[in-house]
Amino acid sequence: MAAIVEIENVKKVYDGGFEALKGVTLNIAEGEILALLGPNGAGKTTLISAVCGLAQPTSGRIRVGGHDVVSDFRAARNLVGLVPQEVNLEPFETVWRTVRFSRGLFGKAKDDKLIEKILRQLSLWDKKDTAIRALSGGMKRRVLIAKALSHEPRVLFLDEPTAGVDVELRRDMWEIVAGLKADGVTIILTTHYIEEAEAIADRIGVINKGQLLLVEDKDALMTRMGQKQLRIELQGRISDIPQELAEFNLQMAEGGEALIYTYDTRAERTGIAKLMAAMSAAGLVLRDLATSQNSLEDIFVGLVHEEEGAA
To answer: Rounded to two decimals, what is the model's pTM?
Structure first.
């Protein structure tokens, strides 16, 4: 699928010499959900600001829908919706007037049917005449999304959209994002909640200290870098791992009542059959077995620590 956002070797250097972005190159396909992960100060918000025209790159080039964000700013910006981290809304305005006004800011003709559709999609229709100050934090974030969608953008940036939102509302947000994707909207999501990226993203990007460490299909990333663990619960307790099992690098758990075997999902052989035979020969009796996969969080932490160690 063709790229709707093209970022080529973008650098951003602030006064004083701080490099917020160090040659970021990234293509984002139309209709995909890309989750951008990184610790505080990694460059996530700076990158979004550059694409949205809120910060001008020091060098490099960014295009949205083929329009350069610097030389053809208005056309590029019309294609982009931005939901910022900060909830900055006029407290005494109603939901309806707030969203309709945002559409007008982009020079779009009045379209009350579209505004109604957006509010219904975001479960805000029954709040349309409610003043912003009377809304909960989660509802205010929905209003931010409605504002960002009011001018019918093809690309939507969500900068920490569920920060401070409870778990139930966060899952509601995930459903909203899935619905937007179904409507053909391209979504770029920055988040500190790695479970969020794992739940809804098509691809994962990891950024740290202004550098893009990788961008990869989520499932392929977890398959390529993930490890599985086999948890072996024993019929009785052991005080030490038998010497015959040394080659398997087992870990003892629960005071000797279980063993943990870690293996690479990419390997041609897992070694499990050999381990089972060795355990039987060592006189260990199994009570139960269970496997678990490394989470995206494990992979993310490992990548960041690896990059910091190489610095």
So the answer is: 0.76
pLDDT tens, position by position, 247-288 = 999 999 988 999 999 887 667 788 899 999 999 999 999 999
Length of the chain: 311
On whether the CB atoms of residues 80 and 153 are closer than 8 A, the answer is yes
For the domain made up of 3-223, the CATH class stated in words is alpha beta
**Structural domain boundaries in the chain:** 3-223, 227-293
Dihedral sign, CA of 47, 21, 203, 61? Answer: positive
Match domain 227-293 to its CATH number in 3.40.50, 3.30.70, 1.10.287, 3.30.1450.
3.30.70
> 21-43: per-residue pLDDT in tens?
999 999 999 999 999 988 888 89
CB 57 within 8 A of CB 12: yes
Instruction: Tell me the chain's radius of gyration from C-alpha atoms.
Output: 24
C-alpha dihedral (158, 160, 166, 172), degrees to nearest 10: 20
Distances (CA, A) of 141 to 123, 132, 158: 12, 11, 10
